[in-house]
Design a protein that fits this description.
Elements lengths: L9 H4 L21 E7 L3 H16 L1 H5 L1 E7 L3 H13 L10 E4 L1 H9 L12 H4 L4 H5 L2 E2 L3 E2 L7 E8 H11 L9 H17 L12 E3 L2 H11 L5 E2 L4 E4 L1 H17 L9 H6 L5 E5 L9 E4 L2 E4 L2 E4 L10 E5 L2 E4 L4 H14 L2 H11 L12 H11 L3 H19 L1 E3 L7 H28 L4 H8 L1 H19 L3 E3 L1
Parallel strand pairs: 1-2, 1-3, 7-10, 9-17, 14-16
Antiparallel strand pairs: 3-15, 4-5, 6-10, 6-13, 6-14, 8-9, 11-12
């Protein structure tokens, strides 16, 4: 189904009540006896500051009026946050008390809900209120066809980021065109040409070409590649993994071949770090990471300014133009009526158009209410970004591409099931490991003077593909996760 931004009718906006319960319910809150809400999150840096600023604003305004005080607690990375939430929900010895409100992805929400620890937000958000959100964003937090366990806070998609300065130099010398980067096959071919071009610049040293391309989330690459080619590798509807050999082979050959031969690479913790170090010229990553794209690179101990180009996520030839839809929402823990209602009051305020636009534009994410995209404040903020410093202009450019991708193309988030979080981890780690191994083996073969064709023959992509599938099967069997192969 085409996932387009659906503008909410004007009259619905007045129904967005800053109350904590559905129409007709009596509030459990008392301004004279404020309820304290603990919020766990994983934001860092500017995002952490933006959230804390929003919380402070809420506490001094709507929170004070309604009798709600929110305490935001940073729990480190997503992994650290999820570990803390899981231990709290299971009552592990020495674990902290369960937070009242916390950042959460669908896979984790499903796990915590099975422990009976999540509140159904349908009890606090009326149909009219839910209609204000982008439909596909809201659907990402709905389970069993009706239970709303996660409220979207901000969302993102993935795009192709390019060091335009380096790309233009290469393109001018080789007759390349950025439109070729619209497909993964085109990306691979461009990366191959880039490697050979840079290798030829040092004739005294063969096989030292530079990598063009990087992938921030290998799991997303596999999941979206499958979806583009008509397969849901994480099949939430049937609660199983689908290993389509033809599709997985195409995905594998592109990544493994690219990594092995040096066309693709991953050096630092993030691919934006690799751009800055000059190890990459392009990568696919989250639209929320635009602010981290470097405005200069280091070369010969000198800082050289670079231009920035954002393009839509590449599509496998013959596939549909799907791109990932991602971003943690927030879940409310089962606790007391006062705490649940207090958490809902904060969520309604935090995701309301004006407030959500401010937070999203500060952090580089997409607002979650449909009306935000026609909001004058949103448009004014975009214009301010376009007129700002280089980094701000980069963010504005990403908004333009991301909005077009959300509105005109298909965005996708796999439906989770028990164990689907482990599936993502398996796909990520197994293919990453294969790529690293292939690179090491290919490097040794290059040192022996073998040609590219001879290296590919020696690596035996068919055998390596079977090795990858075997590793996936083994991990799925060990985790007790059902799968089919076709």
């Amino acid at each position: 189904m085409k996932r387009k931004i659906k503008l909410a009718c004007l009259f619905l906006s007045v129904l967005m009540l800053l109350t904590a319960c559905s129409a007709g319910e009596k509030t459990a809150l008392d301004p004279k006896n404020p309820v304290s809400i603990t919020l766990w999150h994983y934001y860092v840096g500017d995002n952490k500051i933006a959230l804390e600023t929003a919380v402070d604003t809420f506490n001094k305004s709507v929170g004070s009026e309604k009798g709600v005080v929110v305490n935001a607690v940073a729990k480190g990375s997503v992994t650290e946050l999820e570990k803390a939430v899981t231990e709290a929900a299971k009552g592990v010895v020495n674990a902290e008390a369960m937070p009242d409100l916390f950042s959460c992805y669908p896979d984790k929400a499903l796990e915590i809900d099975e422990l009976g620890k999540l509140c159904d937000l349908n009890d606090y958000f009326s149909e009219a209120e839910q209609a204000l959100y982008v439909e596909e964003f809201l659907n990402d937090g709905q389970f069993d066809g009706e239970r709303l366990l996660i409220l979207p806070i901000v969302k993102s998609t993935e795009l192709l980021y390019v060091n335009e300065t380096a790309w233009n130099e290469f393109a001018a010398a080789n007759g390349q065109d950025a439109t070729k980067l619209s497909t993964w096959e085109g990306v691979y071919a461009a990366a191959q040409a880039y490697y050979k071009w840079t290798d030829a610049q040092t004739p005294e040293s063969s096989g030292d070409g530079k990598s063009l391309m990087g992938v921030d989330s290998v799991a997303n690459y596999v999941i979206i590649g499958n979806k583009q080619l008509g397969v849901e590798v994480i099949d939430g509807q049937n609660q199983q993994v689908v290993l389509n050999r033809a599709v997985m082979k195409k995905i594998f050959d592109t990544y493994y071949g690219g990594m092995s031969l040096g066309y693709f690479n991953a050096v630092g913790k993030f691919r934006s770090d690799d751009i800055k170090a000059g190890d990459l010229t392009a990568y696919v990553g989250s639209s929320s990471g635009a602010a981290y794209f470097p405005t200069w690179i280091e070369k010969d101990n000198t800082q050289l300014p670079i231009d920035f180009l954002a393009l839509s996520y590449p599509v496998f030839e013959g596939g549909s133009p799907y791109a990932i839809q991602q971003g943690a929402g927030m879940s409310v823990a089962n606790s007391t009526p006062e705490k649940q209602e207090g958490a809902a009051v904060f969520l309604k305020w935090f995701t309301s158009e004006a407030q959500n636009i401010e937070f999203a534009m500060t952090t580089g994410y997409l607002p979650v209410q449909s009306g935000a995209y026609e909001n004058a404040e949103f448009k004014a903020s975009l214009e301010d970004l376009r007129a700002g410093e280089t980094a701000e202009k980069n963010v504005a450019a990403v908004y333009d591409i991301a909005l077009n991708q959300i509105m005109e193309r298909d965005t996708y988030a796999s439906l989770p099931f028990k164990g689907s979080y482990e599936v993502r981890s398996t796909l990520e780690k197994s293919l990453t490991t294969m790529g690293q191994s292939g690179r090491q083996n290919a490097t040794a073969l290059k040192e022996q003077g073998l040609s590219e064709a001879e290296i590919l023959a020696a690596l035996d992509l068919n055998a390596r593909f079977e090795e990858w599938l075997t590793a996936i099967r083994s991990q799925l069997n060990e985790s007790g996760i059902p799968y089919i192969e076709n």
